[in-house]
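User: GNAT family N-acetyltransferase, Mesorhizobium helmanticense:
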Amino acid sequence: MPSISTRRANATDAGTVVRFIHALLDELTGGKAPAPDDVRQSAEIMLADAGVVAVIASADDEPVGIMVLNECTAIYAGGKFGYISELYVRPEKRSKGIAPHLLEVASREGRARGWKRLELAAPRQPKWKRTLDFYLRNGFEELGPRLCRII
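Assistant: Predicted structure for GNAT family N-acetyltransferase:
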């Protein structure tokens, strides 16, 4: 297992954030991710938002993954909770404990902020069954599908 460290991303990390989020979107969409410049614009806005926490994971001092947490509020959740909008680990670094480490960082951040829960959306099944199984093994429960409406 590599030595894993994490740190909060800031505005100077926009390039790293863009690289990882673009790779995530490219993987999920089968090569149809938005242009890197569009991802950069969104990343810069996100990194400036106080309700968003981006965490970069490094293994042996090399960036290998990212997680983006958003603070949300809902009555069903009993108040504030965290939503993991993005979590990505470079393919060659997967199954080395990096993603579980990021999930533990999310839990610690959530406890510090008084969140009652963490949520995320797993990609479509059955294609991404391995991803769903990973989250289930790491303490998440299925709540049903999420839907989106572009406005």
